[in-house]
Amino acid sequence: MDETREIRRIAINTGGGDAPGLNAVIRAIVLSAVNRGWEVVGIEHGYGGLLPDDTGEVIPLGGDAVRGITHRGGTILGTTNRSNPFAWPARLPDGTIEERDRSGEIIESARRHGIDALIAIGGDGSLHIALKLFERGLPVVGVPKTIDNDLHGTSLTFGFLTAVETATDAIGKLHSTAESHRRVMVVEMMGRHAGWIALYSGLAGTADVILIPEIPYQIEKVCDKIRQRDAAGRDFSIVCVAEGAMPVDGAAMLKTVHGGTGDQTRLGGLGDLVAREISSRTGKETRSIVLGHLQRGGAPISYDRVMSLRFGAAAVRCVARGEFGTMVGLDPPTVKAIPLAEALANHKSVPVDGDIVATARDLGVSFGD
Ligand code: F6P
Fold this sequence. Notes:
This protein has 369 residues and is α/β, with parallel strands linked by helices. Helices cover 34% and strands 21% of the residues.
């Protein structure tokens, strides 16, 4: 082992939306670090634990703290998508929210806590923040997390396959009720920029139509598929819709959600729209269901547990070698580290000319194009 840098204490934080496997990553980091004689602390609620006026603290993480958590969903450190050090939301006396740059305070607080390096576990947004903190002098290693699987620089993100499992199970259950009622069931899934969950679960769950952001759809083509099935005596259909999918002549559907520091905008509502349009154009009875945060919950499947453990241990090896400003990622058959800037340069979209889409098309799945 080429361990060059003197490390005494490292910190871990989890940022953005949670994903099954976060706790397994935390456990792998803690045990790999403790076995090197390092101390580990956890920063609660993103970067909140580093600010005295925010919720959360910096807590010690020893072997005992991570006992029995590999299989647990969520994150023992808590997470938030409202803790960007460069745009920290502050509520003013008149109730309005102002965003402030508190990155200097956070870096200073990390120094005061004796943190020699930070392992930041996060998705696109959190890792962009980690990169900016690295550029301001904080030694950082990133671990890619998102159920959406849309991070470049890793062939898979942990949590994705667990979300696919949940979605596939849901499609299976919808099949029987769709068939009994001769209905079209439209299932909306997560996937902001990329349709990986809809594609994998739609294929595994034998959906008839899959709509993803990478392939703009025409609603008439979707209806044609349903009419063809009806004509062939298959008078029910399953339509999988990634929340970020769009019609050729339209935009993504947005909804308002309610954050503690004010309303926020999220993708959502496409499943309902598609269900309404199918019903009015084909005369068929339709129902829509949004899987939403169910896809982020629950225990990680074994593949995600193993990948999370590998990512956590690999991140500690990066710290030991002084490879900062990097992100670990799966480059089969191994886990490698690449510069964060490179990893974040692009989103990893579904390749529309790749073999998974080709397989679905060969099996008769419509992408509405
Ligand atoms: O990045 C994962 C993701 O699950 C997206 O697919 C989704 O749009 C978003 O997070 C929702 O996040 P939240 O409701 O937690 O803000």
